Every structure is written in C-alpha cells, then in structure tokens.
Amino acid sequence: MKNIFILGVVSILFGCQPKADDHSKELQNQINNLKSELSETYKPGFGEFMGNIQVHHSKLWFAGEYENWKLADFEINEIKENLENIQKYETDRSESEMIPMIKPALDSVSDAIQKQNLLKFKSSFNLLTNTCVNCHITTKHEFIQIQVPDMHIFSNQKFKM
Ligand code: HEC
Asked: How far is Cα 109 from Cα 116, in angstroms, rounded to an integer?
C-alpha cells in the first residue's frame, strides 16, 4: 500500500516535470530578452558626465562671485549629483574609484556657501579646481586643463540677483 502511494507521488511528480521545464525555459527566455534589452539601453559616458560638471563648475563660480548663494548652492549640488552618477553608472571605469578625492573640496565650497563667505568661497573654489586638475593628471588626462573661468558663456542666464 505504502509502495503504491510512493509510486503514485513519484509518477505525479514526473508527470509535472515537462510542464515545469517548459515554464522555467520560458522564464529564462524572458530573462535573456530583458538582459539584452538592458545592455542596449542608453547610458551617458564618463566624458558626458564630466562635460555636465564643467558647465556647473563655471556657473558655480559666477553665482559665488555675484554672491547669489541660492544659485551657488544649486550648482554645487548639481556637481555632486553628477559625481554620484559616475559612481553609480561608470562602475566599469577604474577612475570612478577616485571620485572620493574631490569630496573635501566640495564640502569646503558648500560650507562657504552656507556661511555666505565670499573670501572662503573663492579659496575653496580654487581648491576644487585644483582637485579637478589633479585627478586629470592622475588618470592620464593631463591635457584636459581646468581653470577658474574668466568670463561666463551663458549670457541667457542672469547670475546677479
Ligand atoms: C575622479 C577623477 C576626476 C575628477 C575628480 C574630475 N575629473 Fe574630469 N575627467 C576625468 C576623466 C577620467 C575624464 C575623461 C573621461 C572620458 O574618458 O571620456 C575627465 C574628463 C573631463 C572633461 C572633458 C569632457 C569634455 O567633454 O571635454 C572635462 C571638461 C572635465 N573632466 C571637467 C572636470 C571638472 C570641472 C572637474 C572638477 C569639478 C573634474 N573634471 C573632476 C576624471 C576626473
């Protein structure tokens, strides 16, 4: 009796096997399709994030110079956001591991903005710019030379409040 019962259970299990196989094959196909779709999804490159940072680096300077502290705060946060995105999306680039080196300079600029201290802002901005330069040198991109801007190119935006 017990043997017949076990036989019954085993045959039911085997009976289900092809169906379960079909189902997992179908799931695997769906996973493969999703994986290939994901790999085709557009993702900005390291250089594109940097180009974005360059824009905010420039705007940050003029916002600070005109003591437009709200705008300066906005711009420094845009830089931080872009750097976080590099860490999130550019994991296959070894340079991403060096992003934390810029944190002290960013903190120093943020602090000057909070304190609305123009003198500290200018010296922190110099430190920030030197850090951009240092990372480019370390990552063999010494030909990308960043400097404190001397004129603002966004004439369609007012920096003076
Ligand atoms: C962690 C290291 C690192 C830091 C910090 C860094 N950069 Fe870069 N930057 C790079 C690398 C690497 C590239 C080359 C990207 C590529 O391969 O496309 C680059 C490229 C650039 C480019 C060229 C993009 C273009 O379109 O011409 C600009 C501009 C730039 N960075 C600006 C900055 C500014 C401004 C800062 C500071 C606020 C900064 N970078 C800080 C590593 C860094």
From this structure: 10
